Amino acid sequence: ILMTERFTNEGFQELTPESLTEGFVYTGKVWEKNKNNGVQFFLNRDNWHGYSHADGKIEIGTKEVPKDVKKYFALGEDVPDLEVKKHIFSHENMHQVVFKNFEDENKKVELLETLDLLHKIREKFGKGVSRLGNLDVYKTRKTSHEEDLVELLNMYSQNPKKLEIYLNYLKTADQSILEKNGQVKLNDLVSGILYQKTEKILLDFLSTN
C-alpha cells in the first residue's frame, strides 16, 4: 500500500512519515535523507510488523502492536500504539542508516568496530544491550548484535538524552532485573564508548551526501 492511500490509525491519526517522526530530534532528518536516497515508505494492513529492506523499502504494519511485544523495545505495556509505531518506524530508518554507511569505506570502519564490540559483549555474557536482540528470530540469524546497534541508534535519533538514560540504566540497574530481561550490565568505559560510537555513526550519516 503506497503512502498516497490514506490510512487512519485509531480513528484519529494518519500514519505518515511526518506523524511517525513528530517530536523526535533526528529521526525526521534521517527519514528525509533516506527518502532522498530513494527509500520508499509503505503501509501493510495485514500485520503490526516493521520491515526495512536493503533494496530501499520501509514497511510499517497498521495493526495494533501486541502488549507483550512492547517490552522488547524497552517500552511499557501502557504506551499508546502510535508511540510504539513511532519507535518501530525510527528503528527501521536506522537499518537504512546502517545499509548506507556500509557503502562508504570510512563510515564502514566505525560501523564494523561498533558491531564487533556489541558482538563480543553477546559472546562473552550471553546477552546484549537490547532486549530486542534476544528474540529467537535474530539469534537464529546471528544478527542480535545488529539489532542492538540499531536500537542504540534509534534511541539516540529519537533524543540523545534517551540513549544517555538507557545506557545509565544498564550501568546502575539491579543485576537480577537485567538478568531477567537478558540485558548486560555495562561499566562506565563501555557505556561511554557505545554512546560516542552511536553518536558518530548517526551524525556521520546526516553530515554527508
Protein described:
The protein is mainly α. The protein has helices at residues 17-21, 27-36, 67-70, 81-101, 105-125, 136-141, 144-158, 160-172, 175-180, 188-207, and strands spanning 8-9, 13-14, 40-44, 50-53, 57-61. It has a three-stranded mixed sheet with strand order 3-5-4, with helices on one face. The protein has a two-stranded antiparallel sheet with strand order 1-2. A hairpin with a 3-residue loop joins strand 1 and strand 2 (13-14). Helix 8 packs antiparallel against helix 10. Residues 1-12 have low confidence and may be disordered.
User: How much is the radius of gyration in Å?
Assistant: 17 Å
From the helix content, strand content and strand pairing, which structural class follows?
Answer: mainly alpha
Largest sheet: 3 strands, mixed
**What number is the mean pLDDT?**
91
- Helical coverage, percent range: 55-70%
Residues in β-strands, percent: 5-15%
Please count the beta strands (DSSP E, at least 2 residues each). Answer: 5
Instruction: Indicate the multimeric state.
Output: single chain
